[in-house]
């Protein structure tokens, strides 16, 4: 349990564990207590996963188990310092070890009859906050409220990028016209979440696009 995890995602995990007969144990992480995480530099994800492993590693040791993360091979090409933090602490990535791409995972899940096979990606809420803008519980809650409100209008795959008093809405290119057709409802929903201005990104939804602001070729990146 963490402020950067949307309540809808937590509920989905809990329900899936129940449906599949898996043991469910919710844990609380303390990344918000770490100034390096709140500062939101390019290594934010490292400190998030490090805090997660602080909680999971002892549980895994007690059960003589290994922490597994759902990283796939497509994730390896992006800036994901959290992967290194988890790897250093003994976590494994079975989907990577099996050489599976995101599409492979979806195709296999569909073949197995899993209802979540086409579930949109749902990275943590902190990924909506530009690097250099401090992460806070208030900001994460504002992003969550805005995204949840737009989803209630029938939009599934989306991001609300936080920019102080401005929300930048990203949806797949195919959904741009539909957003404009429901402009009044979309704008009202995001205003209620606390944003003064609402913009629509005509480039469409691009996972991890805030990483473009990082100089990944710089020493130490």
Structure commentary:
This protein has 221 residues and is mainly α. The chain has nine helices and three strands, in the order αααααααββααβ. A hairpin with a 2-residue loop joins β1 (159-163) and β2. α3 (44-62) packs parallel to α4 (81-88) and α7 (137-151) runs antiparallel to α9. The chain is globular. The chain starts with 6 loop residues before the first helix and ends in a 21-residue tail after the last strand.
What's the short version?
By secondary structure, this protein is mainly α. 41% of the residues lie in helices and 6% in strands.
Strand content: 5-15%
Main sheet summary:
3 strands, mixed
Radius of gyration, rounded? 18 Å
Number of helical elements? 9
Q: SSE string, helix = H, strand = E?
A: HHHHHHHEEHHE
Give the strand line-up of the largest sheet: 1-2-3
Shape field: globular
Uncertain ranges: 216-221
- Average pLDDT score: 92
How many distinct beta strands? 3
Q: Give the fraction of residues assigned to helices.
A: 40-55%
Task: Label the structural class.
Answer: mainly alpha
N-to-C CA distance: 29 Å
């Amino acid at each position: 349990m963490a402020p950067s995890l949307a309540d809808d995602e937590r509920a989905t995990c809990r329900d899936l564990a129940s449906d599949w007969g898996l043991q469910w144990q919710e844990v609380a992480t303390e990344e918000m207590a770490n100034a390096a995480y709140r500062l939101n530099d390019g290594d934010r994800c490292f400190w998030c996963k490090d805090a997660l492993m602080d909680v999971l590693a002892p549980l895994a040791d007690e059960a003589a188990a290994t922490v597994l993360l759902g990283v796939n091979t497509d994730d390896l090409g992006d800036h994901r310092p959290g992967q290194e933090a988890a790897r250093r602490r003994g976590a494994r990535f079975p989907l990577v070890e099996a050489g599976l791409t995101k599409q492979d995972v979806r195709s296999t899940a569909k073949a197995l009859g899993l209802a979540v096979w086409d579930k949109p990606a749902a990275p943590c809420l902190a990924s909506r906050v530009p690097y250099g803008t401090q992460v806070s519980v208030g900001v994460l809650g504002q992003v969550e409220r805005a995204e949840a409100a737009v989803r209630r209008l029938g939009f599934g795959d989306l991001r609300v990028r936080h920019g102080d008093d401005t929300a930048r809405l990203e949806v797949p290119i195919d959904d741009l016209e539909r957003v404009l057709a429901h402009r009044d409802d979309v704008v009202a929903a995001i205003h209620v979440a606390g944003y003064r201005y609402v913009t629509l990104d005509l480039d469409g939804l691009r996972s991890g696009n805030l990483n473009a602001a990082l100089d990944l070729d710089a020493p130490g990146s």
